[in-house]
Amino acid sequence: MKITFRQIDAFQTLITSGTVTKSASLLGISQPAVSRLISDLEKSAGFKLFQRVGRKLEPTLEARLLAEEVAQSMAGLKRIEQAAQNIRDFNHVKLRLVSTPSFASTLAPLLIEKFAKRHPNVHVCLDIQSDDERIEWMVLENQDFGIAVSTGRNHNIATHELLSTEAVCLLPKAHKLAGEKNISPKDLAGENFVSYFEGSIFKSDIDKAFNVAGVNRLTHYESKTTAAIIGMVGAGLGVSIIGSGFGAGSFDPRCVTVPFTPAICYKAEVLWSTQRSLSAIQNEFLSMVKEEYSDSKS
C-alpha cells in the first residue's frame, strides 16, 4: 500500500498533539478517520507507530525515526513552495537590456523605472553598445531586449516603436547660422562637422543627405554618443546633426538647434528575437512597453 500525504499529515499531528481527539480537531476530520489513517500508515510502513501510555499515545522508536525523515522531507517541500513563490513573484530573475549610447541615458532609464514600479524584485542589467547592428546581434545571441534603431535587415528581429524624431542641426550659440529658421546641407558647406562613428545609422543617413546635395564637410571630430557630440559642439569645435529627441538629458546650454532639411526621421525601438519564446518576465516587460508606448504601426 502506498503512503499518502494525508497519512503523513495525520502522523505528524498525532505526534505533536498526543491524542486522537486533538488530532481530529486540528485536522478538521473525525476521530475514526484519524485512527484509520494511522492504521493504514502502519500497514504501509510495516511496523507499529504508537503505543498507549495512560490517556496519551506515545510514538514508538520506529515512529520517532520516521518522524525525523518526515520533518526533513517537509522542510524540503517548504523550500520548493518558497522557490515556486520566488519564481511567481520574479524574485532573483534577471532582465537583460542592451542600448545604444544615445538611448542609454534617456529612454532606457525611463523604461527601467516604469518596469521597476510593476516588478521591484527583478534585477535589470543594462549593457551599452556603440552601433545598432551589434545590438541586433546581441539580441539574437543572449540579450532579452535591445533599445536602438532597427536596421530592418534582420527578419529574426521584432520591433516595437517607442518614439520618432526628426534630425536637427546643432550649433554653438554664437554661430552665424544660429538665428536661421531652417538649415540645409548647403548652408554647412566647409563647416567643421562633429560626426558619429562609422556603423551608426545616424551617420549613414546624415552622410547620404550631404552626398546627395554635393556638399563637403570638414570632419575632424567624431564620437560614439550624442551626449559627447553635444559637448563638443558646445565647446565650439564645430556643428552637427542629431535627432531632436536623443541626448536631451545632456543638452548643453551653449548650443542651439535649428530644423534641418531634408527631413531625416529616426525611430527609437525596442528589439527582441523571434527565434526563441519569451519567458514570463520578458512578456511582462514587452506588455509594459506596449502599454506605455503605443506603436504608430498598430
From TrEMBL:
<dbReference type="InterPro" id="IPR036388">
    <property type="entry name" value="WH-like_DNA-bd_sf"/>
</dbReference>
<dbReference type="GO" id="GO:0043565">
    <property type="term" value="F:sequence-specific DNA binding"/>
</dbReference>
<dbReference type="Pfam" id="PF00126">
    <property type="entry name" value="HTH_1"/>
</dbReference>
<dbReference type="Pfam" id="PF03466">
    <property type="entry name" value="LysR_substrate"/>
</dbReference>
<keyword id="KW-0456">Lyase</keyword>
<dbReference type="GO" id="GO:0010628">
    <property type="term" value="P:positive regulation of gene expression"/>
</dbReference>
<dbReference type="InterPro" id="IPR000847">
    <property type="entry name" value="LysR_HTH_N"/>
</dbReference>
<keyword id="KW-0805">Transcription regulation</keyword>
<dbReference type="InterPro" id="IPR005119">
    <property type="entry name" value="LysR_subst-bd"/>
</dbReference>
<keyword id="KW-0238">DNA-binding</keyword>
<dbReference type="GO" id="GO:0004089">
    <property type="term" value="F:carbonate dehydratase activity"/>
</dbReference>
<feature type="domain" description="HTH lysR-type">
    <location>
        <begin position="3"/>
        <end position="60"/>
    </location>
</feature>
<dbReference type="GO" id="GO:0003700">
    <property type="term" value="F:DNA-binding transcription factor activity"/>
</dbReference>
<dbReference type="InterPro" id="IPR036390">
    <property type="entry name" value="WH_DNA-bd_sf"/>
</dbReference>
<comment type="similarity">
    <text>Belongs to the LysR transcriptional regulatory family.</text>
</comment>
<protein>
    <submittedName>
        <fullName>Transcriptional regulator, LysR family</fullName>
        <ecNumber>4.2.1.1</ecNumber>
    </submittedName>
</protein>
<keyword id="KW-0804">Transcription</keyword>
